[in-house]
């Protein structure tokens, strides 16, 4: 039994939706953060269908690993940004355990896989395994050398404050970038071929920039087999901390945005072997580490570790509502939403056991974070000195 409680929101439907939140066990390095995220406890309105599909994802976890998911009572926040700020709990014993789609270094919110892994019908986005399959198919049809030798980003420039606005100024040949504003309101009514995720891998380089919080786009961008230019993120989701700069992506400085993008593009076009290797490393990370099997592994381990910390026996609340697969099918408001549920439904139990969750290793995390900072500092210095632009 998983009881989801917390702030109740009206999602624009007749039913009211609750919230969720968890922790993880995934990639060999990223698994460490399950312990780290839960460490403090060891001693906004939901819009569209994100809340529904998050609950749907938990149902699929139960189906994928029957009998392994513990009884828990959890609070889940479905807004874009973290809310449990560390500064608020300096003189308090413990923060409340709130699960959310992202967190940052200044928050205690616990990262949990976002709803788009099971689909996003408003934007005609299919479940993650289906979208990934289509992206990989398109990748194979266009070799990297024949892609446009520029960096590409498509998204809503009205979301995320100043940074996405600044990115628009880089939309010029002299910056080696193509920036396209996407009107998502129009997208909900009619999806164009250009906006399909599988059709956005036609450039040698892809840009990732956050919105108000993290963006669900990172996994689709990494799947493109092109080096990803990552604009210094303030937030992380459950898997992004497993990425390594200059192996899986190129770090871009936001205080010298257009210049930094131009420098990275020039480096890639003059060092094509190394650039392709970076793109393939990001693609391989997505294919191997972010399979739905691993996503469910992460969810399971997070819930198991969280359940160990509960000091009470979870019981259904007075107003709790039991949800099953049929509940979602019956309340689906469109053919697209129903088809997304059907496509993302777990059809059979896992044929293998969950992956292994290593013990907490704070030194490993600190060492990794320092290495990442050193790499980013090296790239910034090289950019300032004009190095690495030629073979």
Automatic annotation (TrEMBL):
SMART domains: CAP10 (SM00672). Residues 68-313 form the Glycosyl transferase CAP10 domain. It comes from the Eukaryota. Pfam families: Glyco_transf_90. This is Glycosyl transferase CAP10 domain-containing protein. It comes from Adiantum capillus-veneris.
């Amino acid at each position: 039994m998983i009881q989801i409680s917390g702030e109740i929101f009206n999602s624009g439907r007749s039913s009211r939706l609750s919230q969720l939140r968890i922790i993880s066990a995934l990639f060999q390095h990223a698994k460490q953060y399950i312990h780290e995220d839960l460490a403090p406890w060891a001693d906004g309105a939901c819009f569209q269908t994100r809340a529904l599909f998050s609950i749907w994802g938990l149902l699929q976890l139960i189906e994928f690993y029957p009998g392994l998911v513990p009884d828990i009572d959890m609070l889940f926040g479905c807004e874009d940004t973290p809310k449990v700020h560390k500064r608020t709990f300096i003189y308090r014993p413990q923060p409340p355990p709130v699960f959310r789609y992202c967190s940052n270094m200044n928050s205690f919110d616990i990262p949990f896989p976002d709803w788009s892994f099971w689909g996003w019908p408003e934007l005609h986005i299919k479940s993650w395994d289906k979208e990934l399959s289509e992206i990989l198919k398109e990748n194979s049809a266009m070799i990297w050398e024949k892609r446009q030798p520029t960096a590409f980003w498509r998204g809503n420039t009205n979301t995320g404050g100043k940074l996405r606005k600044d990115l628009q100024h880089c939309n010029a040949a002299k910056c080696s970038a193509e920036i396209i504003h996407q009107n998502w309101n129009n997208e909900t009514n009619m999806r164009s071929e250009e906006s399909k995720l599988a059709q956005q891998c036609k450039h040698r380089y892809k840009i990732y920039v956050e919105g108000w919080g993290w963006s669900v786009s990172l996994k689709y961008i990494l799947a493109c087999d092109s080096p990803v230019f990552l604009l210094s993120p303030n937030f992380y989701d459950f898997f992004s901390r497993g990425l390594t700069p200059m192996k899986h992506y190129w770090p871009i400085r936001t205080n010298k945005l257009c210049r930094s993008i131009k420098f990275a593009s020039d480096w890639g076009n003059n060092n094509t072997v190394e650039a392709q290797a970076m793109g393939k490393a990001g693609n391989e990370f997505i294919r191997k580490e972010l399979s739905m099997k691993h996503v469910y592994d992460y969810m399971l381990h997070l819930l198991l570790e969280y359940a160990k910390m509960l000091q009470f026996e979870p019981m259904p609340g007075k107003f709790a509502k039991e949800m099953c697969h049929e509940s979602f099918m019956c309340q689906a408001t469109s053919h697209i939403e129903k088809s997304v549920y059907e496509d993302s439904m777990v059809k059979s139990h896992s044929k293998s056991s969950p992956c292994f969750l290593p013990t907490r290793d704070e030194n490993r995390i600190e060492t990794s974070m320092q290495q990442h900072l050193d790499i980013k500092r090296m790239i910034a210095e090289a950019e300032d000195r004009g190095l690495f632009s030629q073979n």
